[in-house]
Design a protein that fits this description.
By secondary structure, the chain is an alpha+beta fold. Helix content is 51%, strand content 18%.
Length: 213
Amino acid sequence: MIGMLTGTCLVKGEGEIIIDVNGVGYLVQCSSKASADITVGETVCMHIETHVREQAITLYAFETEDERSWFVHLQSVQGVGPKAALAILDILSPSQILSSASLGDKKAFAQAKGIGPKSASRIASELASKPLPRTRGLLGSNASKLDSHLSHSDSKKIENTELTLRNDAISALENLGVGQSDALRAVARAYNIIDGAPLLDDLIKLALKELGK
């Protein structure tokens, strides 16, 4: 099982790149946004999700572990396959997916290529009722720290911090006895109210206020 590839981008197209790792060229599928961010000749480090089918082995590449885990999580929704999951990740970051699902914002998912209104509604409702996606056990809580270290993009580092903060706040509310759906909505609403980067304690307090506690 390939979990990560580090090498030089030899060729790129829309939604796919070839990574040269010690003379071996790996063709990987990725979001159009990810391929656009990559320059031919630069060194890249990509998280890999391997799909084994009867007639093919396909490697899907992601800039962060959170993107990879949400790619897998999105496919737990009925009717969502790899193509649709990548389309969603093309327009929404992991934290935006979490927020949209928490608030039942089906319009956000409907913006993705190939996602119709019915599918968007199903994605929003099903994600809101599912447990949060988990990173690979090997990485565990270090996933966001690793991605922040590897990422050359400040926006990716901010995204990693924001998603970790949201997840920590949701976990804290659940530990206080708040149901997952209520915790998701409360944290999403609280995050939208706060200006700038909030502290965890402030986010939890505001989320509890949203819950009327």
